[in-house]
DNA sequence: TGAACGATATAACTCAGACAATTTCATGTT
DNA sequence: AACATGAAATTGTCTGAGTTATATCGTTCA
């Protein structure tokens, strides 16, 4: 049967953007359905044979997808019971994939402000730590990212990547493995926010000076200044976002890249 | 042939304590090998057929285990290349499982102090938020946990669970989904620290008053006091830990590799 | 000389179908 | 009423085969 072939081909075509395998695409699809509320906590997913039948994939592939979701705390499966969606409190909200699935559609305001809340708590402290611990190499990386933001505008993909890289390098420079693992969360927020701002209000404050201030403080090994500058940076970012947000505009599908 | 049966039986017996399936136990075993440094970033795991042969399990089970590890950022697998251990910066350090695997053996001092560093950043702020947002139900839960710590001593499992529950309830009361998802990390640190302290120094300061102070501040809806009390609490906990740690107390401050 | 292109080998990936293990639930027994 | 027993449903595990992606290397062409 050429059935499976065409199936796999279609699935792969759909997921080519990140070279996901079949199980990966299934996990993403189900994951999005869950975090978007289409499946609610407590719901029981269809049985393996049933579900894999509908998706026209083998049970193996479907099961591996479920393993992925379970590993991220989204579901839990038991014999005789089935696979049930876990309560939101068990979800690994800071998992890069979970976060990207959340941002696949426009996340609700509460979640977004929660994420900013966390950023305002962690990033200033991370900057302060970075001011004390940064190596020259890390400093150089941050400077390059800053230049990247300047040359390419934030309207371009390259510019946004530079922005993310700046924040990412800052977290790495904090020298704290756990803070580093928050990078993806910050990155998602940064990128999504920037895209959103760009769409709503193309002409806005130049973000370079704010970043420059943080950089200077870190370079000068001044923790307090770094803390203040970073807090200011994040607060302004949030302000721009919430100000420009209008009720229920449609979502951008490319929240991540 | 009773070969597989005995195998599955043995594996399950080994993991009965948490009703892990076969793939779960394999994932845990491999995960521990990775986070403990037995497999280093860049290393390529044995091929599926080879590895599953050695472990005497089916390729299916082994593959599902690898999917779990991949979902947690520990490994990445590609055709023609194999499954390679990812650089530490990609690991999901705050994933409950990863964390528990790290704490399976005595974690190194740097990591432990990093975790406390994050706690000192997040938990006080969480307490401050909780002071503003807590519901009466949440307050009640915290009070119950406090009583639990008092009646059962911290030497007992019940007491330690109560301690965890107190911190967990505090994070939940912060009303921030992302902060809530840090619960497991805090819990791991709390429980491990307590056990360790208990082992090293059975007679130590009574922790109840410190917790009581935090609770009172949250009950009184006083964010600043809650922040201060929680910071004090975490700092004392860390102090006890590092003080009682004896042999290889090298540098706790330099977080460089 | 070197750069683009194509074959090849190798690993993960996907499939299919069978059987085993676990847990819930209903039933019957003491 | 409490407890043991068994049946049913669902995930879990196994086997073995074929498929697909990709790094490597050799070939051809500029």
UniProtKB/TrEMBL annotation, chains A, B:
Coiled coil: none annotated. It comes from Steroidobacter gossypii. This is FadR family transcriptional regulator. SUPFAM superfamilies: GntR ligand-binding domain-like (SSF48008), Winged helix' DNA-binding domain (SSF46785). It holds the Pfam family FCD. Residues 20-88 form the HTH gntR-type domain. Keywords: DNA-binding, Transcription, Transcription regulation. It comes from the Bacteria. InterPro entries: GntR_C, TF_FadR/GntR_C, Tscrpt_reg_HTH_GntR, WH-like_DNA-bd_sf, WH_DNA-bd_sf.
């Amino acid at each position: 049967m050429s059935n499976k072939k065409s199936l796999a081909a279609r699935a792969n075509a759909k997921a080519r953007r990140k070279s996901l395998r079949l199980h990966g695409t299934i996990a993403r699809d189900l994951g999005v359905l869950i975090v978007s509320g289409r499946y609610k906590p407590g719901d029981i997913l269809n049985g393996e044979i049933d579900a894999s039948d509908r998706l026209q994939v083998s049970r193996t592939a479907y099961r591996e997808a479920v393993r992925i979701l379970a590993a991220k705390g989204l579901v839990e499966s038991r014999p005789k019971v089935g696979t049930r969606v876990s309560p939101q409190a068990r979800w690994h909200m800071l998992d890069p994939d979970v976060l990207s699935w959340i941002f696949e559609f426009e996340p609700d305001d509460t979640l977004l402000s929660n994420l900013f809340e966390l950023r305002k708590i962690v990033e200033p402290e991370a900057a302060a730590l970075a001011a004390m611990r940064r190596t020259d190499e890390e400093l150089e990386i941050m400077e390059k990212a800053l230049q990247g933001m300047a040359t390419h505008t934030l309207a371009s993909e390259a510019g946004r990547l530079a922005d993310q890289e700046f924040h990412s390098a800052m977290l790495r420079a904090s020298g704290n493995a756990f803070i580093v693992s928050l990078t993806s969360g910050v990155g998602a927020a940064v990128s999504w926010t920037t895209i959103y701002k760009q769409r709503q209000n193309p002409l806005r404050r130049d973000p370079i000076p704010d970043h420059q201030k943080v950089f200077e403080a870190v370079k000068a090994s001044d923790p307090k200044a770094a803390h203040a500058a970073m807090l200011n940076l994040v607060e302004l970012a949030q302000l721009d976002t919430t100000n420009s947000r209008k009720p229920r505009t449609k979502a951008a599908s490319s929240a991540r890249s």
